[in-house]
Known about the structure:
The structure is a homotetramer.
Chain A: H1 4-22, H2 29-36, H3 40-47, H4 50-74, H5 79-96, H6 100-109, H7 117-139, H8 148-164, H9 166-175, H10 187-202
Helix pairs in contact in A: 1-2, 1-4, 3-4, 4-5, 4-7, 5-7, 5-8, 5-10, 6-8, 8-10
Chain A binds a DNA duplex through helix 3.
Amino acid sequence: xxxxxxxxxxxxxxxxxxxxxxxxxxxxxxxxxxxxxxxxxxxxxxxxxxxxxxxxxxxxxxxxxxxxxxxxxxxxxxxxxxxxxxxxxxxxxxxxxxxxxxxxxxxxxxxxxxxxxxxxxxxxxxxxxxxxxxxxxxxxxxxxxxxxxxxxxxxxxxxxxxxxxxxxxxxxxxxxxxxxxxxxxxxxxxxxxxxxxxxxxxxx
Amino acid sequence: xxxxxxxxxxxxxxxxxxxxxxxxxxxxxxxxxxxxxxxxxxxxxxxxxxxxxxxxxxxxxxxxxxxxxxxxxxxxxxxxxxxxxxxxxxxxxxxxxxxxxxxxxxxxxxxxxxxxxxxxxxxxxxxxxxxxxxxxxxxxxxxxxxxxxxxxxxxxxxxxxxxxxxxxxxxxxxxxxxxxxxxxxxxxxxxxxxxxxxxxxxxx
Amino acid sequence: xxxxxxxxxxxxxxxxxxxxxxxxxxxxxxxxxxxxxxxxxxxxxxxxxxxxxxxxxxxxxxxxxxxxxxxxxxxxxxxxxxxxxxxxxxxxxxxxxxxxxxxxxxxxxxxxxxxxxxxxxxxxxxxxxxxxxxxxxxxxxxxxxxxxxxxxxxxxxxxxxxxxxxxxxxxxxxxxxxxxxxxxxxxxxxxxxxxxxxxxxxxx
Amino acid sequence: xxxxxxxxxxxxxxxxxxxxxxxxxxxxxxxxxxxxxxxxxxxxxxxxxxxxxxxxxxxxxxxxxxxxxxxxxxxxxxxxxxxxxxxxxxxxxxxxxxxxxxxxxxxxxxxxxxxxxxxxxxxxxxxxxxxxxxxxxxxxxxxxxxxxxxxxxxxxxxxxxxxxxxxxxxxxxxxxxxxxxxxxxxxxxxxxxxxxxxxxxxxx
DNA sequence: CATGAATGAGAGTTCATTCAT
DNA sequence: AATGAATGAACTCTCATTCAT
Lengths: 204, 204, 204, 204
């Protein structure tokens, strides 16, 4: 049968889910195989090794987010709009694929030791995208000089932490019902707040 | 040598180092024991379990950072100065104990599933510290209304990512020597930039 | 050789032997694996855990003895014959599977703490079998009122102890050659003696 | 301080309790030390090894039971009374020191491999005691010929199993409330039933 | 006598990976 | 292409025993 494609996808899909829920090490190939209803040996047949599967998972995910943002930005004109799009698209994507933030943070926090070249490169591409938006803004006289890498981390760091910390914040609220600004803000409001803050620091 | 204190400290010290370098799961107690030149069983003698050791490590670390910041803020007056102190102290601490950022990010990215109560609580306390600075600023008319949790993540997220991504950025520069704004900024400049950005969004 | 059935059987067979010779705790899975010429991990592959393997061993054993007795009794008519069959079959079985008595005694002597439900149930079934024989005897007017549980323990306790203590008694004889009635009786004679004794207490 | 004696006793006492509750292997010296509020190393100071402590425990226990029975029998005259005393004293003792039955059964069921000579000897002495009662009965013409070892096992086996299986029987009753003759008999009734049964087989 | 520190051997268990079919 | 069997190394944890003070 030519279910090869389907099998591969099932594997990837469940790997994504488990890796993001449990982390790389806590997720066993047995888990993935069982969840995918597929023989464990097939994972090796398709992806050579656990690391290989992981690389595939991350690669796919990052490619998706990159091209989604790129596409969204294409038709816009003003740099500040592009910035907004970048933030909102990134956020939307993180919400939609909730496994992404934990995965990214985890990857980054391991010094990129397990991080295969392609992934690293794709993360870099994403940053270059923002960098080009900012540079473009400067050229047009919209933005002043800035430290693009900090802007990048301000956006991604804040968003990732916000998303990732949700369960913790909800727990905290149970203990301290007055927990300030824990859960009452929507992701849109957060995006808007980040956008405004960054704009203030960028605009001439 | 038969010195409990020294043994305990050696264990903790090396655990900190390895946990932050390799992560919880990749670090084996064999590693820690060998590095500490100490019998593996002693880890259980002192800390009951791997999780127990981890809790001790994190607890100790977070307590330190909290009290350091608290102490530093005590003698200051203006809210904006407090904010600056918060950012700089947090940053300095993260630099000094470079294992902290990866540990924090990793913990957060696992939904706090393995996160013992005390740790969780200490992270919360740290946030409350910033929250009180911001609230104080509002009372004094220095700051306008804001979303403290976002400010918190803007500071910690940005700083943590900046520190944690350093090796990656350096690698990137080797491939793309024009890598924009990757390594030429000192942590002080980063802090200052973050501070300014946040101040702009806060000040009336 | 890649034969699941054979592997499983080899494991069970050696587990039975070792568990009954050394007891549950003294028998390590390493021992079983080595004796079976099988990779230790296979034990987990097949039986999930040491306890799981043990359960399998006991379950299999008890099922066998139960159905053997049941079968043997089926075609008999008088209650006293059934009683005799019960005793003799039980004894024969204990002799044939010499690991059984120590296993049973050991299990019982640990308050049934590690005793999985199924095993417990099977031991209970065995008692119910004797109980039904006795009740049947009463109905027919063959037997008088009695305490079936004591009868049960009289049979099984005596037989188990007799079998289990054999090496001890032989040792004793070496020191005290006049050791009374230590070894000169065959199991058949013992059975007969038990049967007669119990019959005397039962018959009207 | 000369608490040596007290310490030794505390250790023995708690060892008895734990060994009989959990069995030899499941009981760790840590457990015994903690329960006794005594430093673990002292156990080695006093008893050389875990096995040594165990030997002491068993030795003490068996000596007690032997001399208690011997004493009780001394003043009696008729063999049948002695038999009764033997059964009842043994039973009473087993009830009083509830750790004894499991210990004995466990020891027997391990082929006496761990069984130190002294213990073995004491168990033998106990049997000789009964044997002498029976022989005495024959001499007086009270009893007919018999197989003393079977009588011995009938008494001890039945009683030990009855006591040891108590928790199991109680559990069984929860599931099958009609559980026949499980719990309604007192130990005195059991003794009496055993006595009568044996007497019937013995009396001329 | 007494204690806490230290040891080393092994226990059960997990898991990525490979092999045979 | 697919499967279940098999492997071996590693992992966390336990424990009897010894050492130093």
